[in-house]
Design goal:
This protein is of the alpha+beta class. The chain has two domains: 68 residues; 161 residues, q2cbj1_9rhob like domain (Jelly Rolls, Sandwich), CATH 2.60.120. 30% of the residues lie in helices and 27% in strands. The strands form two sheets. It has a seven-stranded antiparallel beta sheet. Strands 5-10-7-8 form a four-stranded antiparallel beta sheet, with no helix packed on it. The longest helix has 17 residues. The chain binds fe (ii) ion (FE2).
Length: 237
Amino acid sequence: MSESLRPVSVCAFTDQLSPEERSIFKSLICEKISEYFDEANNLSLHGLEEEDSFFQVASIIRYLTPFHEEIPINGVAYYGRPQWMNATLLMKLQAEALDRKYQKLDRTDHFLSCGGPVADALAINSEIVDFVACHTGKVVPTGIASYLYYDFAGGGIKPHVDTEVFSINMMLMLRHQVASEGESSSTVLFPPGLPPEYYKLQVGEVMLMYGSSTIHTRTMINLSEDIHLLTIGFNRR
Ligand SMILES: [Fe+2]
């Protein structure tokens, strides 16, 4: 981040904090995120003062994230279909996601389920760890894999940053059924001081995102949508 993007006085203050204190301060700042969005997860800023305030919040969150100097400004380390995502692996993950769908654990504005044997093995696979490291630097796998389901109108996920249980989130699109492309929801990232970025992952595509650094959301799910995702967590070291 360039010096001009930093709220200097806050940075000077946080530089004096211990890692634990920085983490607590970051959690407090993150509680402000929802104030800048409407009920449909759209950024809703009224006037320059509010725009500047949101910019400062996004900048401070980024600044308080470990390794922030090495993180791309939009928080995206990779986006596309990697070679290792072959048809066989995709089919196995799709089948496991479908099976796990009926063992959903938690519902807030989306459904969550733990990974199964295929996803859990992928989360610690050395080829996958090397792939992540190639795009982010040295990483350790957390072994945490979770299937996410968005399959009801009005679902989505509120704007947030991820906790530092894992700072790098590998998101794999396994299924996205929608009646028409115009009704399709998106993953949205909010890089500090830049326009929001919208991503519509195709089935088989992967996004490597620094979810603990960049504010992100999913726009509201439409009536016709059915989305299955797998997320796998990694940490920098
Ligand atoms: Fe997230």
